[in-house]
């Protein structure tokens, strides 16, 4: 029985941001964690499969997910690896990022950490290219979960989210494409597509990944909007002009909104429209989590009255 709309597999991170006075303030990161918070705030029922350390960073992340209504029954606390983190420091050339993720609890995940019960419970099983890159065992966890999801008739979703600091292109390309080939929903950024398949034209990118076997393909284009391909239909929406303060996590916000809408029965075109708006809203404040809108803020931004309890166009208020 489906008890959650989105089950995500991935690596959460604690964020430490240097302020002007030199102090560091705490926040949260990790693409799949950001995505789940975005989806949950729009009414999707979400669950997380991950591992965190027996440390204060893990405690903080667990508190975040609980407060956001994310099911944490599949989150494992490990004593043999810390919770991953990253530091954003300020400098004369702008912010710099330092990652403390080597040997993290999440990188120690394996296929055995993801049960058939968890997969069967989901509408979508989601992962990203980061989990493929952080360790061989984490990559195996994703590929095993996706294979089992397909055998159970559960849909899969994948965000390429390529990080060349984690693995070289000649390893990333075949690894990402092997997973992307069989998914129900694929998100790829223009930057990733240029590296992975040498294409820059959005329709050509969508056709390429549809040709590999991805059923729906969403291409994010930054200042040029986004496109989605579903069968022979392609929908392109322009970027929304907003004052951009911080684009951190905008792609994760887009992904969370897209899946929340699709899980709730929206068409691809409507899901794209909402995801494009959520991505835009998320750039208007600082911080990946702080900027993610709730349903009321999204409705106000889109200029439509709030909807309570219906399932049309992804407007359910379920938790």
Task: Describe the overall structure.
The protein is built from eleven helices and 13 strands. A hairpin with a 2-residue loop joins strand 12 and strand 13. Helix 1 crosses helix 9 and helix 9 packs antiparallel against helix 10. The chain has a single domain, classed as Ribokinase (UDP-N-acetylmuramoyl-L-alanine:D-glutamate ligase, 3-Layer(aba) Sandwich). It is globular and about 50 Å long. It has 319 residues and is of the alpha/beta class. The protein starts with a strand and ends in a 17-residue tail after the last helix. A nine-stranded mixed beta sheet has the order 5-4-1-8-9-10-11-12-13, with helices on both faces. It has a four-stranded mixed beta sheet with strand order 3-2-6-7.
